[in-house]
Amino acid sequence: MAEQTEKERKMLLQEVEGLLSFISLPILVVEKSGQVIHVNPTAEHIWRRSQVVLLNQRLTDLVESTKLLDFVQRGKPLRDFPVEIKNAAGKHFPYLCRLHPLFVNRQVEGAILQFTEQVIETEFEKNRKYATRYSFEDIRGNSPAMIALLEQARKIAKSDSTVLIRGESGTGKEVLAQSIHHASNRSNGPFVAINCAAIPESLLESELFGYEDGAFTGAKKGGKPGRFELALNGTLFLDEIGDMPPFLQAKLLRVLQERRIERIGGSESIPVDTRLIAATHKDLESMIVSGQFREDLFYRLHVIPLYVPALRNRKEDLYDLIQFYMKWFGDRLGKEPKRFTTAAMKCLLEYQWPGNIRELENTLEYIVNLEIGDLVTISSLPASIRGDRVPEEEQTMAASVAPAQSFADSSLEKTEEQLIIQAIQRFGKTTEGKRKAAEHLGISVATLYRRLSKIKRKHLV
């Protein structure tokens, strides 16, 4: 019987040795006692010792760990167990060990040990990678709706309860989520965000929960932690939660109930200490009725509901927001401060802003980039915002020439061209000269350039 067992043992080791020689990661095969009985070429390189030398070593001579040999003898599998390897020069290097026990007739005979270099990320690097950019001080607005929202958000910031932020696209839901994290007891931990609508359904599960080595074709060697694990002791922000597919809604519900996850392809239950903040612009109640969103998940998320008002519903904040972003983009782009005509400002204040803060930012960046002069008129605004309004500088120019009823259209256009040419001749063709010419004519520099381009096409200048 003993001879049969020894024969089986040798056959098993021969098969193992043949397979492991093809693996690029360092591999040790040890007996139950800890004696090394096989190494692959990569292990020789890592430990800087020949196979002959390594086969005369014990596991404790090569790896610094008080528990690793105990796990070998107990036949207990391990995944990503931190150890330090000791090379011939006496230096220690951090590695992660994966242990696969070897059994013969249900008896522990040894183990296969696979080592992966451990990249240690400092707390500073981790915090910088997942740091927040915004706090409550960055949220501008003195309207009653915004004051009430910020008061409520500040009150619940210290809590670990789940938050559901709702509001139209572009209202700044992630800015509010970051501000809550920044003011929370988890502010020293990571703020990890994921947009459920931006990641393909087939990849979203692995991004959230991670996966084990070999879980699917193309999986990263050694596996990969998901966002829940990356957000340990911090906050996980699930943006566009309304776009999460139904099968993941069920899995997320279980995580919220159990506070544990399992990686794809794994069987180990991993505890997660993470605060969850979700956000959506969708009508979740209607989605529940239509069967697109789970009602039980909704109530798990709807612990602390916050609603970010649309920009059209807080017009009191619009003037200050315009001034703030004009200065911000001016400083950023190296542009001189600009003033708005009364008509241009009135146009901005009356616009409904369906894209909310995001659309406002884009509009003001457009103005700062394209308006060369220091006066912003209706003509300086994007066509989608000014609509069919008559630019006030056209009214001014028409009035400065003569009443519109006194001239045919062609005569008025010819007179305007003469005024523009005279102004350019007087102030010069330099950028500064054109700015002064536009100011003299009562039009914006952008309008002057458009008129000059039109005149050039007619070969008048």
Helical segment tally? 21
Q: Biggest β-sheet: count, sense, barrel?
A: 6 strands, antiparallel
Name the overall outline: elongated
**Uncertain spans, ≥5 residues at pLDDT below 50?**
397-409
End-to-end CA span: 109 Å
Radius of gyration equals 34 Å
Strand content: 15-25%
The strands making up the biggest β-sheet line up spatially as 2-1-6-5-4-3
Percentage of residues assigned to helices: 40-55%
Average pLDDT figure: 84
Strand segment count: 15
Task: Kindly name the structural category.
Answer: alpha/beta
Write the topology of this structure.
Layout: H1 2-20, E1 27-31, E2 36-39, H2 41-47, H3 51-54, H4 59-62, E3 63-64, H5 68-74, E4 78-86, E5 92-104, E6 107-117, H6 123-129, H7 144-156, E7 163-166, H8 173-182, E8 191-195, H9 201-209, H10 227-230, E9 235-239, H11 246-258, E10 260-261, E11 270-271, E12 275-280, H12 284-289, H13 295-301, E13 304-307, H14 318-333, E14 339-340, H15 342-350, H16 356-370, E15 375-376, H17 383-386, H18 392-401, H19 409-427, H20 431-441, H21 445-457
Helix pairs in contact: 14-16, 19-20, 20-21
